[in-house]
């Protein structure tokens, strides 16, 4: 069942979104060569808790960390550990926090130092694909409109679209209906004002094929080529949309 949020719920999600933005700004102070992904996780956990929120991923279906950190060919759900971030990496940080029971979900892929032009384009165009999709959001539009726009943008820029993972509704639960694919699967669900959805293109430089690591969380590209991820929590309005987790 798709949830239409009340004004009170929307305000709580706006506040969660603000806290999410604040946390990314804190992450950016520390994300540089030499830091481990585990250290970043600790920084995120402490900052989120200090600001009156809960890290939504910690313990979710057994996930052991407060943030997902995926590097280079890791598409999503990388588990923080002893890996050291180095110059030339791209690092996707997927952050979900809860404020008074309501969630905000966003992902940023960061370029660390010098990377090849095609990798830089991958990161920039994954963000561009999000904006192509969100431009379709308004009451009366359909999920398919978002999906087709993202897929077209990705293919126009020579990128493949991961199909095993999709965006989703969000609110009192981290994952709610409806699914929001990044490819056209003919989803004709109609958008209504008050819906809140996470739109999140996951695009690969090479093949769209991916596999699940033995840890049962980390998803990697099959060909070992880089992947990028960009996500925001979005409120559907009568005339368009409001991004709750920044730009």
Describe the structure.
By secondary structure, this protein is an alpha+beta fold. Helix content is 28%, strand content 26%. Helix 1 (7-30) crosses helix 2 (37-50) and helix 3 (117-134) runs antiparallel to helix 4 (143-156). The model has no long low-confidence stretch (mean pLDDT 98).
Number of strands: 15
Supply the helix-strand structural class.
alpha+beta
Uncertain runs are none
Instruction: Give the spatial strand order of the biggest sheet.
Output: 8-7-9-14-15
Alpha-carbon distance between the termini?
29 Å
Element-level helix/strand string: HHEEEEEHHEEEEEEEEEE
Number of helices: 4
For the structure shown, list the relevant keywords.
247 residues, alpha+beta, single chain, five-stranded antiparallel beta sheet, four-stranded antiparallel beta sheet, 4 helices
How do the strands and helices of this protein lay out in sequence?
Elements: H1 7-30, H2 37-50, E1 54-55, E2 68-71, E3 74-76, E4 90-99, E5 102-111, H3 117-134, H4 143-156, E6 160-161, E7 167-169, E8 176-180, E9 196-199, E10 202-204, E11 210-212, E12 219-221, E13 227-229, E14 232-236, E15 241-243
Antiparallel strand pairs: 1-4, 2-4, 3-12, 4-5, 6-10, 7-8, 7-9, 9-14, 10-13, 11-12, 14-15
Helix pairs in contact: 1-2, 3-4
In short:
The chain is 28% helix and 26% strand. With 247 residues, it is of the alpha+beta class. Strand 11 (210-212) and strand 12 form a beta hairpin.
């Amino acid at each position: 069942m798709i949830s239409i949020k009340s004004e009170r719920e929307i305000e709580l999600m706006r506040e969660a979104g603000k806290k999410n933005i604040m946390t990314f700004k804190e992450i950016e102070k520390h994300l540089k060569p030499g830091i481990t992904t585990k250290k970043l996780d600790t920084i995120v956990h402490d900052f989120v808790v200090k600001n009156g929120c809960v890290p939504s991923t910690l313990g979710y279906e057994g996930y052991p960390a407060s943030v997902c950190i995926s590097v280079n060919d890791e598409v999503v759900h990388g588990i923080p550990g002893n890996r050291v971030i180095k110059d030339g990496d791209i690092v996707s940080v997927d952050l979900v926090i809860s404020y008074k029971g309501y969630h905000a979900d966003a992902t940023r892929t960061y370029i660390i130092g010098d990377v090849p032009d095609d990798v830089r384009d991958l990161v920039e165009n994954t963000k561009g694909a999000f904006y192509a999709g969100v431009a379709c959001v308004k009451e009366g539009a359909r999920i398919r409109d978002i999906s087709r726009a993202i897929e077209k943008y990705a293919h126009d820029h020579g990128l493949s679209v991961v199909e095993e993972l999709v965006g989703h509704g969000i609110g009192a639960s981290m994952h709610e209906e409806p699914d929001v694919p990044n490819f056209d699967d003919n989803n004709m669900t109609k958008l209504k004002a008050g819906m809140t959805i996470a739109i999140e293109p996951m695009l690969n430089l090479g093949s769209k094929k991916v596999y699940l690591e033995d840890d049962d969380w980390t998803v990697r590209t099959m060909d070992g080529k880089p992947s990028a991820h960009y996500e925001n929590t979005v409120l559907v309005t009568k005339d368009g949309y409001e991004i709750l987790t920044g730009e």
